[in-house]
Write a structure and sequence with these properties.
By secondary structure, this protein is mainly alpha-helical. The protein has one domain. Helix content is about 65%, strand content about 0%. Helix 2 packs parallel to helix 9, helix 4 runs antiparallel to helix 10 and helix 7 runs parallel beside helix 14. The longest helix has 29 residues.
Length: about 350
């Protein structure tokens, strides 16, 4: 929106040409979403509190979490509003990748909103049934993956690349691409949702990963940089850096309100949407394995649940005191802030490792 305005102004005032640079618009998108969240956040929190849209705490969770009952939830809507407005203001709206990531993010956000609504209105901590939630997630993910494979202009846009190796490119074909994209989008969405169990635990890794993906998106969309670094050149993918910038900015602002002790929780409306956003960006820029590396905390949290359930069903014994993994550490005596900050540190190291693959090939 603003890009078109600046391009029109640049006809007479050349200074406005600076807004054609993706890097500048990425920074502006981050700052814009940050300011929107800071302005709207307190108002939204007051409204959520007034309407008693508060957290319903599961009775099978750690007993220390019972004090969180009554904290406003569905704050993830603040992130989505900020990201959407900022992206629409600063991104190239003629770029179809922007619309793919925006609609996917908002689509998963709607699923999460319905889930949260059921939890609040019906006072049911389990919310939307797993089968119904999974159905709509699958429908959106398969639709997105099918669109991307049908609009791909080159084999590079549907092949898998392996970090640390320049020459290893695995052709996926239509079925392989759709299947991989489906698992990445749905898997990341649910992984972030499982991780969102402590104040600030999920949002900061999301900020760090989206910042890392912004760099990959910019490089992938730049023919010279992509060739030099030996990664697939994805025309027009660089514009996704603007979206990632908006996501990082709104995430940082949300952390202001979500840091311990949290004034508001993001709820499924935020967690499901943020995970899907990271997943679809990684799919477009062909960095699924990099997302796996950077999002190692999300992966481990998910695996902890899978292993816990599998072990209990097969042997009747639990391998962890409680799943997901962050609850296990809580029950071992770690303070909530210790768990959160240590997981942040691990994520930072993993993001740096992912970025190192740009040169270590």
């Amino acid at each position: 929106m603003l890009l078109e305005l600046t391009q029109w102004l640049a006809i007479d005032i050349r200074t406005f040409n600076v807004f054609n640079y993706i890097t500048l618009r990425t920074v502006l998108a981050a700052l814009t979403s940050l300011m929107i969240s800071f302005i709207v956040g307190p108002i939204m929190i007051r409204k959520l509190t007034a309407y008693k849209i508060c957290q319903a705490v599961r009775d099978d969770g750690p007993q220390t979490h019972l004090i969180k009952a009554g904290t406003p939830t569905m704050g993830g809507a603040l992130i989505l509003v900020s990201v959407a407005i900022s992206t629409l203001l600063w991104a190239d709206l003629g770029n179809h990748y922007i619309w793919v990531v925006l609609l996917t993010t908002l689509g998963f956000g709607v699923i999460g909103w319905i889930d949260d609504y059921r939890k609040v209105v019906y006072n049911n901590p389990k919310g939307l049934s797993a089968s119904v939630k999974f159905f709509w997630q699958s429908l959106i993910a398969i639709t997105v993956a099918s669109y991307l494979v049908l609009t791909a202009d080159s084999p590079a846009q549907t092949s898998m690349i392996v970090p640390f190796f320049k020459q290893i490119v695995i052709p996926l074909g239509v079925v392989g691409f759709v299947a991989l994209s489906y698992f990445v989008i749905v898997g990341t969405s649910n992984a972030v949702n499982l991780t969102d169990g402590l104040d600030g635990l999920a949002i900061m890794p999301t900020v760090m990963i989206s910042s890392g993906l912004a760099i990959f998106a910019y490089v992938a969309g730049h023919s010279v940089f992509a060739k030099y670094l030996g990664i697939p050149y994805i025309p027009h993918a660089g514009e996704l850096a603007v979206f990632c910038g908006a996501l990082a900015g709104s995430g940082l602002a949300f952390l202001w309100f979500n840091a311990y002790p949290a004034e508001v929780f993001m709820g499924d409306v935020g967690a499901l949407a943020l995970g899907a956003a990271l997943g679809v960006v990684a799919v477009i820029i062909r960095q699924e394995i990099i997302l796996l590396i950077m999002g190692g905390i999300f992966v481990v949290e998910t695996l902890s649940v899978i292993l816990q359930v599998t072990s209990f069903k097969l042997t009747g014994k639990r391998i962890l005191r409680m799943a997901p993994l962050h609850h296990h550490f809580e029950l071992k005596g770690w303070k909530e802030n210790q768990v959160v900050v240590r997981f942040w540190i691990i994520t930072m190291m993993l993001v740096l490792l992912g970025l190192a693959t740009l040169k270590l090939r």
